[in-house]
Amino acid sequence: MARVFIAGAGYVGSVAARLLREAGHPADIGRRKASVEAGSHAMDVLRPATYPAALAEAECVVYCVSADAFTEETYRDAYVHGLANVIAAAAKGRARRLVFVSSTGVFGQDDGGVVDETSPATPKGFSGRALLEGEALLAGAPFEATAIRFSGIYGPGRDRLIRMVRSGSPVSARSRAAVTNRIHRDDCARAIVHLVGRPSVQPLYLGSDEAPTPMGEILDWIAARLGLPSPPLGEDNAQVLQRGGNKRISSARLRGEGFRFLYPTYREGFEAILAAETAA
To answer: How confident is the model at residue 235 (pLDDT cuts 50, 70, 90)?
Structure first.
């Protein structure tokens, strides 16, 4: 089993570390503040002097860092400067593969069509441009490298749509009609484990569940599940719920290489969240 180092063990990375260990991979994590768990190291990706020896010892490095805020500077720090530092450090060690956690935010398409790994990436804002610049660094890495672009990540603690339905907040007709894409946190972590364990990887994958769905359908399903009315229809300046535009993200490449979703649609994912809430 490959020794793995995860740079940035937050909402997704911490779960990936646990799953990697359960699968038999020795896994260390680097984060701003080390936790009490074994294999956790204090590390700032912008300060190579803080990098632990475990990074150089890893055969596979997972870069799962998040930006501190939604600004151009913090995005470039997280996805360009930090990534460049980690690639340079890993190149001096035992690394044979790097997995970069990116985002479908690099796609600017908004016409409701299907988007896959061959679709042009034309980001509309600084966040997508920073991610795309980070992805470009992978081509120069002296080892096998891949990026996985996740769509909207939801899961425990990220239940905005459920809270919206409960509050009865209005939603614009435009938001209701837009096709949205999502992936449960646990499937993000499982996809990372899948890419770590494969004999070889392609340069790019999209990670999104199997059911791109209009937002209105999801809100109506949650409302019915809770026995509540659907959110009222608002004006065009009412809540706009998706930053990612109106498109259908295809994860066919990932699934074609054997990955199976634990939560293939929003129904299974939100049902699990609601069930856990009820049990608590």
So the answer is: confident
- Average pLDDT score over residue span 116-138: 96
Which residue ranges make up each domain of the chain? 4-155+181-212+249-264
pLDDT in tens, 186-223: 999 999 999 999 999 999 999 999 999 999 999 999 99
**What's the pLDDT band for 36 if we cut at 50, 70, 90?**
confident
Q: How far apart are the C-alpha atoms of 104 and 152, rounded to whole Å?
A: 8
For residue range 238-250, what is the model confidence (pLDDT) as tens digits?
555 556 678 999 9
Q: Which CATH number fits domain 4-155+181-212+249-264: 3.40.50.720, 3.40.50.2300, 3.40.1180.10, 3.10.180.10?
A: 3.40.50.720
